[in-house]
Amino acid sequence: MNVLDFAGAFFGDGAHWHGYDGIPQRLLEHVQYSLLALGLAALIGLPVGLVTGHTGRGGNALALVATAARALPSFGLLVLIVIMMGFGLLPVMIPLVILAVPPILVTTYEAVRSVDPAPVDAARGMGMREGRILLQVELPVALPLILSGLRSAAIQIVSTATIAAYVSLGGLGRYIVDGLYQRDYEKVVGGATLVAVLALVTLALFWAAGRLAVSPGVRRR
Amino acid sequence: MSAHRRVFGALIRMDSVTKRYPDGTVAVDRLSLEIPDRSITVLVGPSGCGKTTTLRMINRMVEPSEGTILLDGEDVTRQPVTTLRRSMGYVIQNAGLFQHRTIVDNIATVPRMLGRSKREARERAAELMERVGLDTALARRYPYQLSGGQQQRVGVARALAADPPVLLMDEPFSAVDPVVRKGLQDELLRIQDELGKTIVFVTHDIDEAIRLGTMVAVMREGGRLAQYAPPAELLSAPADAFVEDFLGADRGVRRLSFFPAAGLELTTVPVVPVDATAKRLGAAAKSPYLLVTDVDGRPLGWSEPRDLTPGDIGTDRLLPYGRPFTPGTDSLRAALDCAVLSPTGWAVAVDADGKVLGVVSQSAIGEAIRTAHAGHAGAASAPVTGAVS
Lengths: 221, 389
Fold this sequence. Notes:
The complex is a heterodimer.
Chain A: H1 3-12, H2 23-55, H3 59-71, H4 74-85, H5 89-113, H6 117-125, H7 130-160, H8 173-182, H9 185-213, H10 216-219
Chain B: E1 10-20, E2 26-36, E3 40-44, H1 51-58, E4 66-71, E5 74-75, H2 81-86, E6 88-92, H3 103-107, H4 109-113, H5 118-131, H6 148-160, E7 166-170, H7 178-195, E8 198-203, H8 206-212, E9 215-220, E10 224-229, H9 231-236, H10 241-247, H11 251-255, E11 271-273, H12 278-284, E12 290-293, E13 299-303, H13 332-341, E14 346-350, E15 356-361, H14 362-375
Parallel strand pairs in B: 3-8, 3-9, 6-7, 7-8, 11-12
Antiparallel strand pairs in B: 1-2, 1-4, 4-5, 9-10, 12-13, 14-15
Keywords (chain A): Membrane, Transmembrane, Transmembrane helix, Transport
Pfam families (chain A): BPD_transp_1 (PF00528)
Membrane topology (chain A): Multi-pass membrane protein
């Protein structure tokens, strides 16, 4: 049997399409974990990245923190936190957020830094306040790059959220963890396929968001 | 003379203003300047002379270390910085347009900040597009779809949108090619004639300074003022060797742009129509060259009298007449240029319709230059006549 046969068998089995261990339920859980983690990471990464990028201060400190955070292994961190805090949603969120903050933070900072200084100077010279300069002059131009940071964070979260299953939570990781334990490779392949598809859907969503949110004047078409 | 040459009271007064940076560099050194109302004051000098810093201290983009700047008698530090800046238009090199906004929304920026409705601000923006010579069909375009010259026009329109009394322009036309720059300069002079703003204009180009300025402040390295004078005075009496050097070698010729060509004595003796009779040719024949015109009086070219046959003058053998000048609107510089370009050394004067009014020789132009200089003897400590030969 090859991988395609495993996947075909998994998705062909009607039993996998309903119930608390059904695909819709696991998919929903996975999306919920991912959105929550991405939301929390954006809540931290975006404001810090925007403000440091606008003022140009704290760039070095930012790079240091981001590199350190990237060096942390998510799975090891999860085990450590579960030992310290016990089971629950929070111990899963911490490693996912730590994974997602650096790409958001660093690209947002770089995106704002790389905005042409001339329009910013013009805006300041016409009496625009700093907050407005950041949100109405720099952000719209920096948006494509900021979205790319959010996108890579989202992809990493979607694929890493499978670790939630190791600490008794749901999500698509359930199929992989349980499948491995039960030597049910249909389940493992099915779960992995779903994660991959979800990652592709995430890509598509960000592409659409870019088309909608980025001004044609910035996209240049 | 056009309205922008008229000088009103001082609107901006800089009093012993110094900008010193924390590392000890002095960008501007005890500069005192009175910037007249409703006129164009140009700050000019080599790079690093502090001209941009001086401009940016007026709207407090740079805070002075010492000295005071008064706007309409009031210290600029007395009002909130955003209020001050909103009362001044600001135009920079490369325009600095907001690339995510359409042209009309770029121009509407300040009216929107001042609380006008979107519709009102856009109507005002469309009005300004016409004023700066932009096709309103471009309103919905984005900046990247416009040429550099068009972008700069949008920059000027955006600065004028809230109708501020003061316009600060920092090398606005430096990044466009010479032909477009000339167009933008003409446009600025035209707009200034209509609106009468107080414009402070920074450039490193002395020709631009002389063309646009009612007053020109020449600055030198170290942020010091070398000379502050109207352009004609600058050309006739540079304060020192630095200013003279900065003005360049042909300041004598350039100064002629300030003398009108209207006073030149024109002669019609050597002018003959293409269907001239033998009698008419005979009367003109004592001139070394004759200017042949068509039956409507428009110039065709020069010829020696002996090459002409009465009744049917062959126009294919005529010498080119160069570029004619218009006495009513052109300067002595234009007249001299025509004479120098003409193969016969005579300049052709035409009216607005291009019909020949008469011709004038190089030596007659030289005489007019000497007379004009004599009339300005008070201002000119160094008479400039060497340019005419």
